[in-house]
Amino acid sequence: MNTRTFSISELASEFDVTTRSIRFYEDQQLLFPTRRGQTRIYSAQDRVRLKLILRGKRLGFSLAETRELFALWDETPTGSMKQLQLLMAKIEEKKAALEQQLNDIAMLQLELDSAESRCREAMADLTEKTL
Question: Cα–Cα distance between 36 and 114 in angstroms, integer?
């Protein structure tokens, strides 16, 4: 059993986030430090949760989605089929959204190329007429 604890400044330094961000995640009911007077004491589980929050953020997960996954995790700490199915569904949603964004970017690039080509032709026409 890991009984190591962490201060807010230790976690902030380790994960390169501000203490304000960590307090925000606490306010959002994602982290649950104990208190010793005014001092927050974070457990190894809080450290893991912070790591997962930040990973989820990088992957485009909202805090609500992260909270939903944590709720399932808290029900069955060793993991469950329900948790894994939800995570897989969220991953598929993110991948589909990224694929759509890639398609949108490719279409926009084609439209910009076409507009640029028309502008160059119009400029060439104007240059010829003024000579």
Answer: 64
* Domain presence at residue 88: no
- The CA-based diameter of the chain, rounded to the nearest angstrom, is 85
124-131 average pLDDT score: 85
Amino acid identity, residue 54? L
Q: How many domains in the chain?
A: 2
Q: Note whether residue 4 is domain-resident.
A: yes
Closest listed residue to residue 70, CA positions, set 102, 103, 45, 104? 45
Neighbours of 77 (CB within 10 A): 8
Residue pointed to by tokens 């279409």: 107
Residue 73 has what pLDDT?
Answer: 77
Task: Say if CB 43 and CB 33 are below 8 A apart.
Answer: yes
